[in-house]
Amino acid sequence: KAVVSTQSGYYGRGKITKIEENAEELRKLFVGGLNRETTDEQFREHFSKYGEVIDSIIIRDENKLSRGFGFVTFGTIEATDTCIKDKKDESIHVMQGKKVDIKRAIPKELPPSQHDSRDKVFLGGIKDGITEEILGKYFEDVFGIKEKTVSLKRDPEGKLKGFGFLTLDADTDDMLKSDVVDKIIIVERHNLNGTQFHAKKAAPKNQSYNYRGRGGHGGGYRGRGGFGGYQQPYGQMGGRGGGNRYQPY
């Protein structure tokens, strides 16, 4: 299900959508490059300075040794955003003498192309009445993107083909590009002007956009204590709870 909700206000003929404050999909971080000696308590304490930590876990092997990465779920999207923005200062996210890598967690059922870092988004399901200007205002108001280009594809008669692209400008901070694109594709299905369009990271020309979405977010994690079943660069393993949908990219 889309993690956006209808609020007061209008884009053209339709209502503005806004990210839900309690959207768990956007409150979860992947943390990599951990010192293997970092304890669960130290891990949680580091992130608690940003606000309420709903859950945190360092992934461990069968011998309870750290695998060097973990996950954190905050109580608000704002805390998650602030934590990611602090990556600009390389001295902040250092734990037990080691700089850690922080990314917004991506649902693992999304295809491999969606775990790459990109600055271009494919927009599908665009209906008549939606314009570049309307989409531009939507992405600026909801996701804070000011420097961007929206282009919709049309046939020779000027009729919409139903898809287009959002491209973040080259002078946008790379870290900001990566995270805002992640937020857009995690939401995935966006409501605008009474219709719904979907967003995916734009694939290279030799790859197809035609793949299944999340199908209602089946197999989601289970709230508090619901971490488990992570996929990551070193292989797949189980954790607490089972059935988690997230992996780093």
Describe the fold and architecture.
This protein has four helices and 17 strands. With 249 residues, it is an alpha+beta fold. A hairpin with a 5-residue loop joins strand 4 (53-60) and strand 5 (66-74). It is elongated, with a radius of gyration of 19 Å.
Total beta-strand segments = 17
Taking Cα atoms only, what radius of gyration do you get, to the nearest Å?
19 Å
Distinct helical segment count? 4
Which structural class matches the secondary elements?
Answer: alpha+beta
Spatially, the strands of the biggest sheet line up as 11-12-10-14-13
Largest sheet: 5 strands, antiparallel
SSE pattern, N- to C-terminal = EEEHEEHEEEEEHEEHEEEEE
The termini sit apart by 22 Å
Outline type: elongated
Helix content: 10-25%
Report low-confidence residues grouped into runs of 5 or more. 5-17, 209-249
Percent of residues in beta strands: 25-35%
Gist of the model:
The protein has 249 residues and is an alpha+beta fold. It has helices spanning 40-48, 77-85, 132-143, 174-187, and strands at residues 4-11, 14-19, 28-32, 53-60, 66-74, 94-95, 98-99, 101-104, 106-107, 120-124, 148-154, 160-168, 189-192, 195-201, 230-232, 235-237, 246-247.
